[in-house]
Design brief:
The protein has 454 residues and is α/β, with parallel strands linked by helices. It has 14 helices and 18 strands.
Length: 454
């Protein structure tokens, strides 16, 4: 079955405006029933972990999800605010049948989303999501529900944060120490606001906290990985060794070096790949990236004997390629970093720990480690759309794309795609001439706006 046949699920679960349209309590109730039904196993009473970020609407959706799951005879384990990778970890290590995350990641506070993990901590396949959608077409069918003593119950797992913190600390080599290392840690007023500072402090670092005062509506607001400017300023002002900026659910990270210069996901992947290869731990000498990663990444890796495999956009597709072929490192330019020897999904804190351990191991500042490649210029424009029509079916757009690709030749790329989580078309043009690629990106974005924004 194809991912494009899905109607409800995007590339990262279900997402939308909280309490509007699809993303309301009734939808959450039915999603709860669907996940419980899909994973129901007659051999035991099954359990589902539910965690969330700090959005105000998380309370509403958590209650509805829990109700739906319990109505199907499954028990719920509530862990409260916890990073998405932490929920995957808890679901896996507590031998739950599934994990649920209530989060809209890097989106505004008034959005929310629901995504799922299986018992091994991996995101659900397209086929399973399609089965859930099929189940939800008959939400009032009571034949599969439980009654009497078979109805499920919900309990709170009070030590979930502590379990995840301990796991994260074990991802950092015991031979290294953060004693005397000053770090700026921006948690985006999101799910990692307690976990991330605690991890680095307990490893010995001097932590300067940003974005650790969530109030339900300030998640990602001028902070975190989408707005790293304040982190960079604080690093320069305090003389910190590095800055770490997480997003709302902490499954991605953007860093800055001691000079306040941004270190994005491509650079983090590159320096991590080199670090693993030097120690003989990079599986099959291969890094997995998406079509959005900079072409300079491929050239730099090739020069160091590392192969780069490309996938479609979405960390789930990166992970799928890693699992299928036995690779252990992958990620996205946006900051999703997957160290498959440690966790089953993108983990921003693990990514930061790996960068810092490489700094200590090589006894070099991050500015030196990050000089792996000079990125090719990229021009990116996002365009809001009312519908997601096939670009090839719109003659004027198709002609413009074909013309630009011929003009770029082998020296550049044009990538046009729809967001899997928003009604947005994303334009990316890459090439040696900044003025030319900006013109191309702007003109294509303008044409898309004229044809699809109304």
């Amino acid at each position: 079955m194809s991912e494009c046949t899905k109607r409800l699920f995007g590339t990262d679960g279900v997402r939308g405006k909280a309490n509007e349209g699809l993303m309301d309590s009734e939808m959450a109730l039915n999603l709860g029933r669907a996940i419980a039904s899909i994973f129901k196993n007659e051999s035991h009473r099954h359990r589902v972990v539910i965690g969330k970020d700090t959005r105000l609407s998380g309370y509403m959706l958590e209650t509805a999800l829990s109700s739906g799951i319990c109505s199907m005879g499954a028990d719920v384990m509530l862990v409260g605010p916890l990073p998405t990778p932490g929920i995957a970890f808890i679901a896996r290590t507590m031998r739950a049948d599934a994990g649920v995350v209530i989060s809209a990641s890097h989106n505004r506070f008034d959005d929310n989303g629901i995504k799922f993990f299986d018992s091994e901590g991996f995101k659900l396949s397209d086929d399973i999501e399609l089965k859930m959608e099929a189940f939800m077409k008959s939400p009032k069918d009571v034949s599969s529900r439980s009654f009497g003593s078979d109805i499920g119950k919900a309990i709170r797992i009070d030590d979930a944060q502590g379990r995840y913190i301990q796991f994260l600390k074990e991802c950092f080599p015991r031979s290294l120490s953060l004693e005397g290392v000053k770090l700026v840690v921006d948690c985006a007023n999101g799910a990692a606001y307690k976990v991330a500072p605690t991890v680095f402090e307990e490893l010995g670092a001097c932590v300067i906290e940003l974005g650790t005062e969530p109030n339900g509506i300030n998640i990602n607001e001028n902070c975190g990985s989408l707005h790293p400017e304040r982190m960079c300023e604080m690093v320069r002002a305090t003389g910190a060794a590095a800055g770490i900026a997480l997003d709302g659910d902490a499954d991605r990270v953007i860093m800055c070096d001691e000079n306040g210069r941004i270190v994005d996901g491509d650079v983090i992947m590159a320096l991590s790949a080199l670090d693993l290869k030097r120690r003989g731990k990079l599986a099959k000498d291969t890094l997995v990236a998406t079509i959005m990663s900079n072409l300079a990444l491929d050239h730099a890796m090739r020069a160091n004997g590392i192969n780069v495999v490309r996938t479609r956009v979405g960390d789930r597709y990166v992970i799928s390629a890693m699992r299928e072929c036995g690779y252990n490192l992958g990620g996205e330019q946006s900051g999703h970093l997957i160290f498959l020897n440690h966790n089953t999904t993108g983990d921003g804190i693990v990514g930061a720990l790996k960068v810092i351990s490489a700094m200590l191991r090589e006894q070099q500042p991050l500015s030196e480690l990050a000089r792996i490649f000079e990125p090719y210029p990229q021009a990116k424009v996002d365009v809001g759309v009312m519908r997601k029509s096939d670009f090839s079916s719109i003659p004027e757009i198709s002609r413009m794309i074909e013309g630009y690709r011929l003009e770029l030749g082998e020296s550049g790329r044009l990538v046009l795609r729809y967001s899997g989580t928003e009604n947005v078309a994303r334009v990316m043009v890459e090439g040696p001439n900044p003025e030319k690629i900006k013109r191309m990106a702007d003109e294509l974005a303008s044409l898309i706006s004229q044809t699809l924004a109304n």
